Amino acid sequence: MPHSTRAKYEQTPAADDTTMFIFGAGGDLVKRLLIPSLYNLDRDRLISPKMRIVGIDLAEHDDESFRRHLKDFIADKAADNHSESREGSLDESHWRDFEKRLHYRQGDFTDGAIYRQIDEVIAASESDNALFYCATSSRFFSDIARQLGSAGLLEERNGRYRRLVVEKPFGHDLESARELNADLLEVMQEEQIYRIDHFLGKETVQNILVARFANVLFEPFWNNHYIDHIQITAAETVGVEERAAFYDKAGAMRDMVPNHLFQLLAMVAIEPPAAFGADSLRSEKSKVLGAIRPWMTEEAKRYSARGRYAKGTLGDRQVPGYLDEHGVDAESETETFVAMKVMVDNWRWVDVPFYLRTGKRMSARDTEIAICFKPAPYAQFRNTDVERMASNWLIIQIQPNEGMWFDFQAKRPGPELEMDTVKMGFAYKDFFDLPAVTGYETLIYDCLTGDQMLFQRADTIENGWRAVQPFLDAWSEQSEAGKPDIEAYAAGTDGPTGAHDLIQRDGRVWHKVGEATGPGVAPVPTQSKR
């Protein structure tokens, strides 16, 4: 029977009183994720009863219309069974209490007047603490930070805190990431900056650390002596949807790899930290990303593949191709799929390739880490019906069916020696009574309590961009030559053939998208005679 998580919430202390300011309060992120997350935290009594939430944007709202706008959206989502609240519907009684926290100020992020209003709001509050959340386009991050600094709103004294949260993408290449870091660090300390990546709020991602370091079974085998290669996949069935304005400038690489996929790579590949704390963990993650081998231009071309979805079938639906999506430039050279091979040049991972892929309009929604172990020696099975040894796989699925599964070999019943793959593992939903959450609850709570363990540091950000910069440069060179290497793949498939060629050149194959609990796919699939 699933274990209840209620005791956990009852024992967790509420965050200190603060005022949270959300820049870009009219955006989709706020109504779809941030406000539902704060609503959930409030229901679990994890935020102070006196905490206030102030939305800031250009849209014309007062407090009442802002509250009504948010409630209508969340209630509609609940009616469509896509609610972000715990019971799958909006609790009217609790919403009436929660919405008293919600306030609104109309203003331009680049205009000093709105920052004077912010100062007035804090002065009228019982607490001098403030959390500033940039739920805006990344082009506003520097302006907002400078304005906050100029207004004296980032100064910490007399025990008060002032913190800034920025969403990804944190820059669009190595140079812009360095510039943004420099802009932020000019007006505040690293300890005040929370670079958020919602992947790190998922229970399964955090459980990677627990699985590795709290179980003596794993760590002795977590190295190049036993692991053949590691695959990290983030597959989506959705298309560009309402994000065309952003996505057509970013593409799959910038949108997913330096943040989401590299965060998963770092969690899998880090050395055991000296302590389970922010400084130790983030230092080890930065070391891993800093150890990724920088490819030369021709290597970057060889070890990557790009694709763009064309029209196709998803389930029983016909869906358009990327270039036919609303808001997409018909001459776009943006990729919706990318696959790449990277090498981590340290003692633990030397000669172990990491294969990364991410794409839209693929055959299944699936975010997973697939760890392929080297096959056992074959010598003792000579002169039997076993032709070759298959690899063991450890699958860590982040979404949609969070859990871990391990493939191992067992003898098939019968008089002859034949082997089959057997699976053992667990799904979170079978063991824990998990509430329906957005994934932001843990991260927002950590922002309020000052725990930076799940947030990226400046050096980690720059190391991530440094690793992908050779690919960006190689693709830019191809575009300038009039030969962008972007291969079409039909919607509802597993990506372009170039991605399969990329891994097959090394004698390996991709783990099947969406089959974390299905048959494992090994480099040599045949185990015994049939």
Structure description:
The protein is α/β, with parallel strands linked by helices and 530 residues long. 34% of the residues lie in helices and 20% in strands. The chain is built from 15 helices and 19 strands. The protein has helices at residues 6-11, 28-43, 63-79, 92-98, 112-123, 141-150, 174-187, 203-213, 244-269, 278-290, 297-302, 428-431, 441-449, 458-480, 497-504, and strands at residues 3-4, 19-23, 52-57, 102-106, 130-134, 162-166, 193-195, 227-235, 304-310, 312-314, 317-319, 337-343, 353-359, 366-373, 393-399, 403-411, 419-427, 432-433, 487-490. The strands form four sheets. The protein has a nine-stranded mixed sheet, sandwiched between helices. Strand 15 and strand 16 (403-411) form a beta hairpin. Helix 6 packs parallel to helix 7 (174-187). The longest helix is centred in the middle third of the chain and has 26 residues, at 244-269. The two termini are 39 Å apart.
Care to give the gist of this entry?
The chain is α/β, with parallel strands linked by helices and 530 residues long.
Largest sheet: 9 strands, mixed
Structural class, please? alpha/beta
Shape: globular
Q: How much of the polypeptide forms β-strand, as a percent range? A: 15-25%
- Order of strands side by side in the largest beta sheet? 17-16-15-14-8-13-12-9-19
Count of alpha/pi helices: 15
What is Rg? Answer: 24 Å
Contiguous low-pLDDT stretches (5 residues minimum) are 81-87, 517-530
* Whole-number mean pLDDT: 87
Span between N and C termini?
A: 39 Å
The count of β-strands is 19
Helix content: 25-40%
